[in-house]
C-alpha cells in the first residue's frame, strides 16, 4: 500500500539522536518497533496492572495485552487512512513502557513521593525508558528511536517539563508543547486508539470481575444500542457471548467513525505533508456524536468501576506499598542494584527503579524490606 502524502515517511524521518546507518531490510519505524519489542521494559508489561492488580486473575488485561490491543486497533485504522502502520504500531507498543506497578494508583503515589524533586508522570517516564533507562547497546543509553516514534510516546507534557526537555534537546520532541502544535497523524491516532481499547476492555474486565453488570451498562447508549442490535440479529445469544458480540460491535462502530471523521477532516485540510498536519488543529477524531457517547461511557466506568469500593480498597493498599518502598530505598540505597544505588540523583534513581517494577516484584520487595505483606 502506498502511503498518503500526509503520512510520516520513514525516508524523511527527522532521525535518531545518535546517527546510525540504515538497516538493510527494515525502514526506520520498523526498526523502532523491533527494538521496543525486544526491550526489557516491554517484557515487564505482562505483569503490570491495567485496572485489576496482577494477582487478581489470569484473564484480566495487563499493560502488555492493552498495548497489543492498541496496536491492533491503530494498525487497522492507519491502513484505512493510508498512514504509516509501522510507526503507529511502534508508538502503541511503547506508550505505556513508563507505567508504574499498580496502574494509576502507583503513578499517583510515586508523584507524591517525588514532590519537590521533579514529580513523576508515566508518559514522561516512557520517554525516559526509551531514551535513557534501557541499557542494551554499546554506543548509547536507551533504544535510540526515531524522532517520530519518540514524539508519539510523549503524549502529554507539562510546560515545565517541556521547557526542561527543550533545553536538553532544542527543537526536539517537547517543542510542540511550547509551540502548541500537533504531533503527526500516527501519534494522534495512537492517542485515540488507546482510549477506544481501554474503554472496551474495561467493560469486559469489569463484568468478568462482577463489579459491574450488563444491566448497569444498559444506561450507556453506546453499549446498549449494540447489545440490542446483537440480540436482534442473534436472539439465541446467551451469557458472555452477548457481551463479546456487543463489545465487538462497539469497537467496529468506533473504528469506522474515526476513519470517516478523520477522512472528512483531511479532505477539508488537504495537507501536503506531515508537517502541514503538525501545524493544523488535531485531525484524528471521533464525530461529535461518537465523542459524546465515548465520554458518557468513560463517566460510567469512572463512577462504577474505577471508583468501586473493592477497586479503591486495593489501590489504597497499592499506594501505601509504593510510598513505603520509596522510603525504604531512599534510606537504604544499597538495597537497589548498583546501577541505581550509585547514582547521584537519589530521588530520581529510586523513582526509576520502582517505576520499572512489575506488580508482583513490588509486592515481594515490599514484604522483604518491611516484613509485612502490603496487598491482601
TrEMBL record:
Chain spans, region Disordered: 1-28
Gene Ontology biological process: dGTP catabolic process
Signal peptide: none
Domain HD: 63-199
SMART domains assigned to the protein according to its UniProt record, in alphabetical order: HDc
Highest rank taxon of the organism: Bacteria
GO terms assigned for molecular function: dGTPase activity
Protein keywords: Hydrolase
SUPFAM superfamilies xref list: HD-domain/PDEase-like
Pfam family, any one: HD_assoc
PANTHER family (alphabetical): DEOXYGUANOSINETRIPHOSPHATE TRIPHOSPHOHYDROLASE-LIKE PROTEIN, DEOXYNUCLEOSIDE TRIPHOSPHATE TRIPHOSPHOHYDROLASE
HAMAP family (alphabetical): dGTPase_type2 (MF_01212)
Family per record: Belongs to the dGTPase family. Type 2 subfamily.
Name listed for the protein in its UniProt record: Deoxyguanosinetriphosphate triphosphohydrolase-like protein
Species assigned in the record: Variovorax guangxiensis
